[in-house]
Automatic annotation (TrEMBL), chain A:
Keywords, comma-separated and alphabetical: Methyltransferase, Transferase
Domain CheR-type methyltransferase: 1-273
Keyword Transferase belongs to the record: yes
Official protein name in the record: Protein-glutamate O-methyltransferase CheR
Residues spanning the membrane: none
InterPro entries, A to Z: Bact_Chemotaxis_MeTrfase (IPR050903), CheR_C (IPR022642), CheR_MeTrfase (IPR000780), CheR_N (IPR022641), SAM-dependent_MTases_sf (IPR029063)
UniProt xrefs under PROSITE patterns: CHER
BP GO annotations: methylation
PANTHER family linked to this entry: CHEMOTAXIS PROTEIN (PTHR24422:SF8), CHEMOTAXIS PROTEIN METHYLTRANSFERASE (PTHR24422)
Species this chain originates from: Hufsiella ginkgonis
Lineage: superkingdom: Bacteria
GO molecular-function term, one example from the UniProt record: S-adenosylmethionine-dependent methyltransferase activity
Keyword Transferase on entry: yes
Automatic annotation (TrEMBL), chain B:
GO-annotated molecular function: phosphorelay response regulator activity; protein-glutamate methylesterase activity
Family annotation (CDD domains): CheB (cd16433)
InterPro entries to which the protein is assigned, alphabetical: CheB_C, Sig_transdc_resp-reg_Me-estase
Recorded GO CC terms: cytoplasm
Top-rank taxon, per record: Bacteria
Entry EC no(s): 3.1.1.61
Record: active site: S23, H50, D143
The reaction(s) this protein catalyses: [protein]-L-glutamate 5-O-methyl ester + H2O = L-glutamyl-[protein] + methanol + H(+)
Protein name (Swiss-Prot/TrEMBL): protein-glutamate methylesterase
Amino acid sequence: MSNNFAISFEQLEELIGLVNQVHGFSFNGYTRASLKRRITRIMQLYNLSFFDLKALLINKQDFFEEFLTEITVNVTEMFRDPHFFSAVRKKVFPYLASYQRIKIWNAGCSSGEELYSFAIMLEEEDLYSRSFLYGTDINSKVLDFAKKGIYDLRKMKQNSENYQQAGASSSLSDYYTAVYDAASIQHRLKQNTLFSVHNLVSDGVFNEFQLISCRNVLIYFNAELQRKVIRLFYDSLCPLGFLCLGSKETLRGDELASRFRVVDQFENIYQKIA
Amino acid sequence: MLNLPLHTAAKVRGAGIMVIGASAGGFNLIFDLVLSLPATFPVPVIVIIHRNRRYQSAIEELLDQKAAVRVKMAAEKDTLNPGCVYFAPPDYHLLIEPDGTLSLDYSEPVWYCRPSIDVTFESASDVYARNAIGILLSGANEDGAEGLAYIENNHGLVIAQDPVDAEVKTMPQAAINKCRRCMVLSNEHLFQFVNQVALLHVK
């Protein structure tokens, strides 16, 4: 990134304030270094000065959705971190099998790859028919992609490799239909899913879940917001429900840590016990 | 013996952070440089190497046992401390927050790399400006060169391994091409340089 588009941390604060005032959207709890990079990227992408960017945010209503899409990180894969998924299959699914209804919340689901990975595993363990998966994100544009469940066929190679490493029991291609250069997730895997806008910063509990997966989201939050979101997850889990975090996100040091049991310390899987 | 020009010595005295990037052909040199650091090394050190996320590695543990400084894999919210070397974890970009803590980022790879050296160089420069030292060693792509130029533009100190000494020249050569005032150091001088940082630095 060239220095030309770089903004200062002071300008970043100005922008955070502006977005909050004009759009009622708070990025206050977000880590600054990453946010600054994303904004610099937007300015580069659209060839905007800092002044242009502010003017667009104030005057052009539909620019904000684009801004939101670019500012949040929407990089994801199916079965990303295969070891995580095999750990869930081995250590968590046997518990889930004891529930009549299994409700799963994938918070920060982006374009839905992780949610469909869960759906596939549930299907393979004969749990899908009594499961319901909620995918939420702050960004309605990526949720549209998630609902469609249509992905670039080229990405399916990496996704298949991940799937195989995660302890596959068949072939990933059993779960999608290739159409030209796209892979369309099979209809039955979309049936028990719901994608909806939810902001971890400002929205609250909306259901009770047996499993919540929120991976590579907390890394973008400051310590205070992390505490708040972990409290929200705690309140949204049923007794003995599971919380899955990203490979670099832990509950260590959190005030609620003692209320969880560590199910897998490498994959950061926790169970609510108190 | 490496003789630092006056303005360079001044930058070394005021340094707040040292960031080292390396890829193909640079790992052994990085390890030896880390092992050469005294326990009281006056600034925090960040190391970015390109490594495959698929394979678990124990580099940090091994170095931590052998080195005088502390060596750890960087975790989000870690506070940067002198006398400690932080390795960027595989598959995440490593960023530095204005309050001197570390954060991780899972955005797009840069130059097909995550962690990217460019990303951490730029982030260090954003926070430390003229007090950042960037060092780029052997590697097979151009990751790091632009970040080093970014540090230079913010008046930090930039160093490239002499391509003659580098096992793979692409990366340091790209840095030399992109930076106007890049110090080009032989392997021997690189060791002397970090030694000088330890001696000259004003705490």
